[in-house]
Specification:
Elements: H1 2-21, E1 53-58, E2 64-68, H2 81-91, E3 97-99, H3 102-105, E4 119-121, H4 122-132, H5 135-146, H6 149-162, E5 179-180, E6 183-184, H7 189-202, H8 206-214, E7 217-220, E8 229-232, E9 244-252, E10 256-265, E11 268-275, H9 285-300, E12 302-306, E13 317-321, E14 324-325, E15 335-341, E16 346-350, E17 357-362, E18 375-383, E19 386-395, E20 400-401, H10 404-416
Antiparallel strand pairs: 1-2, 1-11, 3-4, 5-6, 7-8, 9-10, 10-11, 12-16, 13-15, 14-20, 15-19, 17-18, 18-19
């Protein structure tokens, strides 16, 4: 009886070994499918705005939510001063004494009325710069921080390039219309919004920037205690909408009325940038456009999470591991293992009917052995072609190499059982 069983077991063992030697593999990639709830929402049309160039930006990610020729270059007038202010805050000290040169004192209106030879504390001049938009103040600050207006302009252009504002060119620190051998003083609505994003969310001086630009009124004297200078904030948007955070106006003959501002509602922060938004007597156009764009953002964009802890498509990502073995019967099929994205979720402002696209890229020729936790690819999430987040894809389990010994051991274990 024992011999008969042994003979049958031997035959069974030989057949299994023969089948195992003929196994082959074919890698398969499975990616998440895109799906989104189709819900109607109001659309903003460019024709509804007075501004020739405008954008609405999500301040957290920098994604442009709406654009009207937002990448077109145009003069930006005194919205320039947000860059002047942030560079002064980052490179100067509020207690610095700023001397007034003849060039600074000779700047046209709007001006503080400073005289050559006077000195002011940098802190006081920053309120003059941002609340009243004084042109002489901007030059005095530029000369103090950069050594000269031209050197400060170089600092401005360098910072713009660092921020990815590749369609911006600064000549003056105050935004007065200017032109040199490289072109005119200009930016785009998109670049202007990006600069504001930096000022309020990224700069080490962001809290000081917000404190200055949100102040309603401010008075000061020069360093010797002479004179009394009063500044009133001309950013009407601060009292126009709940959550208004900051902003800067501007106007020149070439630029027209310009504005850049930010609003915070709950955990959402929006930035609006407007260029060429009317000329006299249309001073109120910029406020109308700002309200319209901010309202559009508030009514239509809400946060959704993207990342390893949230799968918007309820899809599983699996891969076949060539010649892999995970503990089950080592037959002709490859080993299937689950993979998952690793990293913290990213919040994205989206419309309800807006799709999140995902693209999975795996390394070529995924073959055993694969250890749990090993990165075998990445998943990229994007919206309307704009990349939002990239996560590494890692194996959730180990796949050993399916060797002859593993197959033999598996068969022997069956026989012994």
């Amino acid at each position: 009886m024992m011999k008969r069983l042994a003979g049958r077991s031997g035959m069974f063992l030989l057949l299994l070994i023969l089948e195992i030697t003929l196994l082959f593999t074919a890698p398969v990639i499975v990616t998440a499918e895109n799906a989104a709830e189709d819900t109607s929402d109001s659309e903003m049309r460019p024709s509804e705005l007075y501004a020739r160039y405008a954008v609405l930006m999500d301040a957290e990610t920098g994604r442009i939510l709406f654009s009207k020729s937002g990448d077109t270059e145009a003069p930006m007038a005194s919205t320039t001063k947000i860059m002047t202010c942030i560079l002064a805050l980052e490179n100067g000290t509020l207690t610095d004494k700023v001397s007034v040169s003849s060039e600074a004192a000779s700047q046209p209106e709007v001006s503080l009325g400073m005289k050559e030879g006077q000195s002011f504390y940098l802190k006081d001049l920053l309120y003059s710069l941002m609340l009243e938009s004084h042109n002489d103040t901007a030059v005095a600050i530029a000369e103090h921080i950069g050594g000269s207006v031209s050197e400060f302009a170089n600092m401005m252009n360098t910072k713009a390039e660092e921020l990815g504002c590749m369609s911006t060119y600064f000549i003056t620190p105050n935004g007065l219309d200017a032109e040199d051998e490289n072109g005119i003083h200009h930016t785009t609505a998109q670049d202007l919004a990006r600069m504001m994003k930096y000022c309020i969310t990224e700069s080490p001086a962001k809290e000081q920037f917000l404190e200055i630009t949100r102040t309603g009124s401010y008075t000061f004297s020069d360093c010797d205690g002479n004179g009394s200078y009063a500044c009133t904030n001309h950013n009407a948007f601060l009292k126009m909408m709940d959550g208004a955070l900051t902003g800067k106006t501007g106007f020149t003959a070439d630029a027209g009325y310009c504005y850049v501002g930010a609003l915070q509602n709950d955990d959402r922060t929006f930035i609006v940038a407007l260029l060429a938004c009317g000329w006299p007597n249309n001073k109120g156009y910029k406020w109308s456009d700002t309200r319209k764009l901010m309202t559009y953002g508030l009514e239509n964009y809400f946060y959704r999470d993207i990342g390893s802890s949230y799968d918007p498509y309820n899809a599983e990502l699996t891969v076949d591991v060539e010649n892999g073995y995970t503990g089950s019967f080592p037959d002709s099929k490859n080993a299937d293992i689950n993979v998952s994205a690793q990293g913290s979720p990213v919040r994205v402002l989206l419309k309800q009917n807006e799709e999140i696209e995902s693209e999975v890229q795996l390394i070529e020729n995924i073959s055993a052995p694969i250890k749990a936790g090993a990165q075998i690819g990445e998943i990229t999430y994007s919206v309307n072609g704009n990349r939002i987040a990239v996560y590494p894809l890692c194996a959730e389990e180990t796949a050993l190499e399916r060797t002859f010994k593993i197959c033999l051991d598996y068969v022997v274990s069956l026989v012994l059982l």
